[in-house]
């Protein structure tokens, strides 16, 4: 519980606690576990809920089956209220010193499982709950599915005890619609007391700060990695994981992939010839490409959201020829086959496009590749592909495209610029002339935009002003 509160505090949340059991424990052993009476449990829950409604509830060890039932009843009520909290359960069975803390029986847990947005068992807890040892990817998925069938929204199997993954620590996220893997190198330290609680509390806190689940897990994992690297011995057993604030070092973040992604080793897409791509208009016609090149633009994108037709091919062919003549960096959006066929400078692909496109063909053809991202996890997925640039968006509200994600804002953009760690970066979404200096101050290498140019009453003047402002920013 101390680890929970330190984590919530360090990541910018405010934590309140409900004690389910009093334990006598130190870094070496747990010598007593005494569940509190049900009345005491429910009085604590009511006291907090009537005062400070939570954005998320993180549950740790529960004393016995009657507590699980009482808590489930309370959370069921909470879930029906207007601002239902997210509920995350770290089903603690053992302390990190090895002592048994609680027995976990699936039948007892069923009323709670169906209320969960996320459950975060390690390999032992998953096996205790489901009776299935996760000895490989298949058995892990079968075991996780047992919990999903009980109604849990998602299962994150923590990789600390998944020894078959070798030097890698892999955390597996499975929900009815999403399957992800978060991979880090194992941190070699005996000091990891409180790691499980810290991880789940970090996820809960970051979700409360309005990050999506994939980002919350990514940030929580980076928080754990930096905390393990910074852990020092205190007491005679494993020292506590350190609480070092919002993670910012790229090396602490896990790799992120969809389970459907095919691993692929290569030395990196052809680089762009400048760390800073500068002004990057995104337009939907050959006529715009021609005008922009004439006004001095040297990075641009042809984004025609249309199926492949001979007319489209002709437009793209002419745009590629114009781009070459002007020695410009012309990226083709989505239509990677045509881009390869016509020898374009580069291709821009989004996260969904990555699943359809033949990346190896783009790589072998020597085309540059830009990838869209909308947060920490997608940036990590993109980084693993070693693209020519990474686009970060959408920074401000945009009318140009329906975005499933929320605007990122400048603070997150600053963090993302650190995370891309040297890969050229592009900011996109709602960027206008007035916002150039603020966006440039984040250190991002380029500003991409649509309507600030295409809907301007004097686009040529706006482009010339944008070029000048970027130069001076
Ligand atoms: C520079 C840049 N950033 C992001 C996008 C968006 O790409 P994507 O997510 O694939 O969406 P569509 O543009 O295809 O609708 C982009 N095109 N360019
Ligand atoms: C294609 C795209 N991808 C993310 S935001 C965006 C549109 C940006 O348009 P605008 O500059 O008009 O906000
Ligand atoms: Mg696309």
Structural summary, described in words:
- The chain contains 18 helices and 17 strands.
- The longest helix has 17 residues, at 213-229.
- The chain is an alpha/beta fold.
- An eight-stranded parallel β-barrel has the order 10-11-12-13-14-15-16-17, surrounded by five helices. A four-stranded antiparallel β-sheet has the order 6-7-8-9, sandwiched between helices.
- It is elongated.
- Helix content is 39%, strand content 17%.
- Strand 14, helix 14 and strand 15 (389-392) form a beta-alpha-beta unit.
- The protein has helices at residues 2-10, 38-49, 65-79, 106-113, 123-130, 137-149, 195-208, 213-229, 286-294, 310-325, 336-342, 351-356, 359-364, 376-384, 409-420, 436-440, 451-454, 459-472; strands at 21-25, 30-35, 56-59, 86-89, 118-119, 155-157, 168-174, 179-185, 255-258, 278-283, 299-302, 329-333, 346-349, 368-373, 389-392, 425-428, 446-449.
- Magnesium ion binds next to loops.
- One of its GO terms (cellular component) is cytosol.
Please outline the major beta sheet: 8 strands, parallel, barrel
In which order are the strands of the major sheet placed? Answer: 10-11-12-13-14-15-16-17
What percentage of residues falls in helices of 4 or more residues?
25-40%
Mean pLDDT, rounded to whole units? 95
> How many β-strands, per DSSP?
17
Total DSSP helices: 18
- How much strand content do the residues show? 15-25%
